[in-house]
Design brief:
six-stranded parallel β-sheet, 17 helices, 9 strands, alpha/beta, elongated
Amino acid sequence: MGDVNFLQKAITIVQQATEADNAKNYAEAHKLYIQSLEWFTTALKYEKSERSKATIKAKTLEYLQRAEQLKEYLEKTKNKKPIAVGGSKSNTANGANGASKKVEEDEDMDPEDKKRNDSLSSAIVTTKPNVKWDDVAGLYQAKEYLKEAVIFPIKFPQMFTGNRKPWKGILLYGPPGTGKSYLAKAVATEISSTFFSIAPSDIVTKWLGDSERLVKQLFEMAREKKNSVIFVDEVDSLCSSRNDQESESARRIKTEFLIQMNGVGNDSDGILVLAATNIPWGLDMAIRRRFEKRIYIGLPEPQARAKMFQIHIGNTPNTLTPGDYKKLAEATEGYSGSDIQSLCKDAIMQPVRAVQNATHFKTIRGPCRDDPDVMREYVTPCSPGDPNAQEMTWMDIDPEKLKEPEITFADCLKSIRVIKPSVSTKDLDKYVEYTRDFGQDGV
């Protein structure tokens, strides 16, 4: 029992240390970290399990590193020269003062806080994804909701005064591959404000107390920049329903999200939290309430599927007509946008397979690749019964002379037989039930 008491004592003290660390009481935190290390060392001495010993050693190393960082920071601030007040040149250069103030703030910032700031800065989308609203096939209602929440408040702020306020939280949910993240890319492209793209790996760390500090700093950065959008992909992995089996760290992350999204004393004006999930029923109910708009991104309708075929086939040489695209859309009922993308990739590869498997080729004339006005001879695969067929394989052909076949409607049908839908009817029923209880249709 003695070793259990030593370990429990160490855990209790280190929790106090992290609380002091969170409160930026670094001197007290450093003292408590050192105390906890003494108890961890004693617990290690009496521990018999090799697995437990390895865990205790790893934790001891983590807290030792944090204690050393705090010691370095405390010594640095202790030795810092005091700044004179009221000097004759103190107010003569506001621009220089502003720059020096920023440098001083960076110097005064705890190294771990600065590291977290730098980490979150990398989550800011600086290069536009170049996905326009028109590039998103279908989902008309979802796009209107997002324009209403993101574009209008920035472009026409005079419309959102008094009781008319923009939405603060929007949840996009639905089966995998239906365009939730793609919609977020369109938002990032269309807005002129700051867009944070956050994945669970950006928030969850191995350090005790570090994850909730990252959540807090994320929202603080968003408030500083104003008109910010925080996009959290796979939000269910961060904010699942609370239960007795979850870790203390997971519970703290959820609590911090709740506080920052709609907590007492927190100003969330100018911030939109946009989140996406495939399992909305797994979200904590308090988190679900924070998302005022819960939009179901379902499987695409026939018109949207036809447009997806056109987008994904693109300018690859083909013989498809508008009527063919309509027939393909009708033949892919139950396919998600991601399924259709995979199907088109497979269809685009059909001409490559035709070249690879061909035993006979023939010579044809066609426009030059470099200059369409010039005609030249090419070699293309053909059936053995073709009057101009020559027996050979692709290994015998000069690469410059090869002319691959165009994609045909038959190629697409062949791919449909191979690529099956990834979403089952049973899965769809769960989304329909959730939408009936809590959501809105975004199609």
